[in-house]
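Here is one chain, start to finish.
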Amino acid sequence: MSNEEKSTGDVAVIGAGNMGTALIRGLLGSGWTNDQILATGPDPAKMADLEETLGVQTATENRKGAAFGETVVMAVKPQIIDGVLDEVADSLQPGALVVSVAAGIPTDRIEAQLTGDQPVVRTMPNLPATVGYGATAMCAGDHADAEHLVTTRRLFESVGSVVGVDESLMDAVTGLSGTGPMYVFQIIEGLSDAGVKVGLSREDAHELAMQTVLGAAVMARESGQHPAELKDRVTSPAGTGITALHEMERGGLRALLIDAVEAATDRSRELGDHG
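Its structure:
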């Protein structure tokens, strides 16, 4: 599919912070033109800088963004989304797709603040979207159809990969991929510390740890093999791999990761219930 075919009309990004700006960069590299994108934010200086560096249209008034976009991405924090929705509801184009990035906010809560049958798609991207390697989950609200999901998929494929899930699983997504980069950062730091403990310089240990994690992830994706099969390839009889694996099993690494994802999922559910 060509870049031109990928473009899905004018897009407004309301709340062009880190995630919103990352999405804009992704869109510009995936077929959208500068005049198809309008970003909003409260700081005039930041909007001017965004306009200068990326060449997109900007505004400090969210209503202008709402009126502009065939798709309106609500890239705002969950604590303020209610106020922003109240502000823009009357300015949205009839039938414009509203895509929420606000963690923990259900689609029915967003729909209740909009007029008519405005289609809503809820997403949960993660931090690596800012470097083009995001993992995003999406789910449709009551008025969103298959084409709205296609549009949303195209938006977020510009910054990584996308999966569709039932909305009841969005808290699980938050626990796994939303919080997941933190787990990996901890693993990288731990491996780096381990390298220093066994004699490597901090610089060399950090570089080797980062490249090892990156290489293993790429290998797992591109090989098509189950992680258990790949693990077996580096656990030769009486070798270093199986010895290290024994220690990780003794320490309960797998169970610890499962517990962490479960705890983060539960916390996401609590935040949504009391948001």
